[in-house]
Specification:
This protein has 243 residues and is an alpha/beta fold. It is built from 10 helices and 9 strands.
């Protein structure tokens, strides 16, 4: 009798969690239905260093073979295209921090499918104080803390600080962006002990050229991190501007 009652409560809880899929609006448990997950979040062959799509069987793209990024491996759920561009746009700019749960769940599933080595600590790629004041929340931290709970990995706030944003980067080349962001990130003195000797996963929503992630990784390595991986929701297929 108790088992039946417990089963009934679980079923009721699942019903309360059911709702519309954020993509197709079909009825589902959670916020992304199984069909849309299969269609839009299926694993694809990607460069292990920058997450751009590569032909099947190729582990690393030519550019990363020539000039490897500072981060060791890069993981992403999908290309920055429909529906991820819309979901991330809502998440970042339309006061929808609750979408972090859906996006973090997809990131965790992608990490497990790719066999990514487990990081010791998750670190959010932070907003500047000005951007944080304008937006009201840091979307990378919203992702990071939920991802930490999902994977059972510590997510630590304030291990990395963004000192400034730099000038708008839309029309800059990657080399210009790197110069523009030089010194933009730092590990606060109080956080150095938590970084030293650790395998870190740097968490962000989107990467295009990688200039921002490159500079953030540089700061973590300079503070003594043993290894830094980059985990993303989406990767822009053709790097033309910094997202």
């Amino acid at each position: 009798m108790q088992d039946a009652a417990r089963h009934g409560l679980c079923a009721a809880g699942r019903a309360l969690l059911a709702g519309g899929c954020e993509v197709c609006r079909g009825w589902t448990a959670g916020r992304l239905c199984a069909d849309c997950r299969t269609r839009f979040a299926a694993p694809a062959p990607r460069c292990c260093r920058c997450a751009l799509r590569v032909p099947a069987g190729l582990a690393c793209c030519v550019d990363c073979q020539r000039a490897p990024p500072l981060f060791e491996r890069c993981l992403c759920v999908a290309d920055y295209d429909f529906p991820w561009d819309r979901l991330i746009g809502r998440f970042k700019y339309e006061q929808a921090p609750e979408l972090a749960l859906l996006l973090a769940d997809c990131m965790a599933a992608a990490a497990q499918a790719a066999g990514m080595p487990s990081a010791e600590v998750l670190v959010a790629l932070p907003l500047s104080a000005q951007r944080l004041a304008e937006r009201g929340y840091d979307q990378a931290w919203e992702l990071t803390r939920r991802l930490g709970r999902r994977l059972g990995v510590p997510a630590r706030p304030r291990l990395l600080e963004r000192r400034f944003d730099g000038q708008p980067q839309a029309r800059l080349t990657r080399a210009q962006r790197l110069r523009n962001l030089q010194g933009a990130f730092q590990v606060p003195p109080a956080a150095v002990a938590a970084v030293q000797g650790r395998h870190l996963a740097l968490i962000d929503d989107v990467m295009t050229t990688g200039a921002t992630a490159h500079e953030a990784t540089r700061a973590l390595l300079a503070a003594g991190a043993r290894r830094v991986d980059l985990w993303l929701v989406a990767r822009t297929p053709v790097p033309t501007h910094e997202a």
